[in-house]
Specification:
single chain, seven-stranded mixed β-sheet, binds adenosine-5'-triphosphate, binds magnesium ion, transmembrane helix
Length: 505
């Protein structure tokens, strides 16, 4: 038996004695009770060289679940539970898989900087009679940490901090991610209504299944990783821990798919912000402040969501609008209450991106998507605000290879050379390539799918050729048109002068 085990037994005996004391102390007069308790504490302190800290599951008057207990449970679910013989599987709220923790009255040893310590999981069963088959809500669970008193500073200083941090990290890894969408503000006032509603985020897209040029993909992944690990860096340079991405490209090139892949890669929640239901800048601010850290805030089709293309308002414009707001006549002249101030403005969005985030915690990524990058105001997309501009483009051969692996599980095929040539000659979005690669019936094999794609590519090439021919013809016709109208003008002038001459005669 080790020294700790001997002491542990002694500890159990002491615990028994204390329990007996708790039951019988009422039979002692109060002053005698105080003396006995003080003396017993001193005696135990002298003899027993170990310190114990308990972490109850519920604390406070309202018996809220203690954060430290959950963190310890998660911490022990990784390292210590591997050594425990009896485990308990629980489904914890917001957790995507079962949490395995050590069962009640189980004990495990942990080690920190060469120091040994002991964790035990305890349950005090309620003495109240219960008629239910379920455990009584009065049962009390707690973890107890025991260590030698010579390590007091190390354990209370660094070890507990380490356990809580690691436990929280495990919870973050294991948490069920969510996709949030904003509720219209007309619903915000309702009882228990929140600004965002959510569903579980289970999009299957990953960077593995995302079709794009491999070097570009690696660059984006490195950028994301660097951002995720740069907490200290951002703190040092005094910048809010956020990063903006602008994804642009034609429809069906994988912008939304990329956002899902980013969220899966970083293990972040996604806030899909629908700007058209946000009335004004104040509402926008309230919504954004309620987003949590470790999240991607997405504004899709930024060019269509609102009129965000205008320049920032000048002071005079702002003053005019304020006056208009105050004066009902001016407002009517301007076109009723449908005036601009009931909308989110570009400057409202920019101000938030620039400033407020610094105050409400970090680790947020904001992604804007658009089909028409050229329509956006340069102020919105300048570097520093949107840190990275990513062009999602038509399908290249490398992208095709990812898609064909995803859809048909094929790495190479003689028809690949034809597909390669056609992809270089014509433009087709990854969405269209994917659609053509999908087997239409059970008896359609990989060769038939590839042939189908080749046919579609040839048709797209032919269509593009016809279209460009038509455009050329239109251009030529437009160039001829002014010449023709110029002729008629000349003729008219001539006629006019002939008429004038005849008048003179
Ligand atoms: N790069 C890609 N990699 C893998 N799949 C893709 C890619 N691009 C498109 N797809 C497929 O096409 C479908 C549509 O793509 P997605 O919605 O991501 O396009 P988008 O660029 O967001 O289009 P839009 O501009 O219309 O929003 C996706 O469900 C996905 O299956
Ligand atoms: Mg999209």
């Amino acid at each position: 038996m080790t020294a700790f085990e001997t002491w542990s037994h002694l500890g159990s005996v002491l615990a028994g004695l204390m329990f007996a004391w708790a039951v019988f102390k009422q039979y002692f007069p109060p002053h005698l009770r105080m003396h006995i308790e003080a003396y017993a504490h001193k005696a135990v302190g002298h003899v027993y060289p170990y310190i114990q800290i308990t972490f109850p599951e519920f604390t406070g008057e309202r018996l809220e679940r203690c954060e430290a207990y959950s963190a310890i449970q998660n911490y022990l679910s990784t390292s210590a539970s591997a050594r425990a013989k009896r485990l308990k599987a629980e489904s914890v709220k917001d957790s995507q898989s079962l949490v395995l923790s050590m069962d009640e009255n189980e004990e495990v040893v942990d080690e920190f900087e060469g120091v040994k310590l002991w964790w035990s999981s305890n349950l005090i069963v309620s003495q109240k009679p219960t008629f239910s088959l379920y455990p009584s809500p009065d049962d009390r669970r707690f973890y107890r940490l025991t260590f030698h008193r010579s390590h007091r500073d190390l354990i209370t200083g660094s070890y507990i901090k380490h356990v809580l941090e690691k436990g929280k990290a495990v919870a973050a890894d294991n948490r069920q991610r969510k996709l949030f969408t904003n509720n219209p503000s007309s619903n915000w006032g309702h009882y228990k209504a929140s600004k965002w509603s959510h569903v579980v985020f289970e999009h299957p897209a990953t960077f593995d299944t995302l079709a794009m040029e491999p070097s570009k993909k690696r660059q984006i992944m490195n950028d994301l990783l660097k951002f995720q690990q740069a907490k200290e860096y951002y703190a040092r340079i005094g910048k809010a821990w956020k990063r903006g991405y602008l994804l642009y490209g034609p429809p069906g090139t994988g912008k939304s798919t990329m956002i899902a892949a980013m969220a899966n890669f970083l293990n972040y929640d996604v806030y899909d912000l629908e700007l058209t239901t946000v009335k004004d800048n104040t509402e926008l601010r309230k919504l954004l402040i309620e987003t949590s850290a470790k999240s991607i805030i997405v504004i899709e089709d930024i060019d269509c969501s609102l009129d965000l293309t205008g320049q920032r308002k000048t002071k005079k414009q702002e003053k005019d609008e304020d006056e208009e707001k105050a004066d009902p006549v001016k407002r009517m002249v301007k076109g009723g209450d449908e005036s601009k101030d009931s909308k989110v403005t570009l400057s409202g969005l920019l101000n938030f991106i620039d400033g407020l985030w610094s105050a409400c915690g970090g680790e947020r990524i904001i992604v804007f998507t658009t089909n028409y990058v050229e329509k956006l105001d340069p102020a919105l997309i300048r570097r520093g605000r949107m840190d990275k501009h990513i062009e999602m483009s038509y399908c290249c051969y490398e992208s095709f290879k990812v898609l064909v692996r995803n859809y048909l599980d094929v790495e190479s095929h003689p028809l690949f050379a034809t597909v390669r040539r056609l992809l270089e000659e014509t433009k087709m979005t990854p969405a269209d390539v994917a659609e053509n690669l999908m087997p239409k019936s059970d008896d359609e094999d990989e060769e038939a799918c590839l042939e189908g794609l080749i046919e579609a590519l040839e048709k797209a090439k032919e269509d593009a050729r016809k279209k460009s021919e038509e455009e050329e013809e239109e251009k030529a016709a437009a160039a001829e048109a002014p010449a023709a109208s110029a002729m008629t003008e000349k003729e008219e002038q001539q006629k006019l002068s002939e008429v004038k001459e005849s008048d003179v005669r």
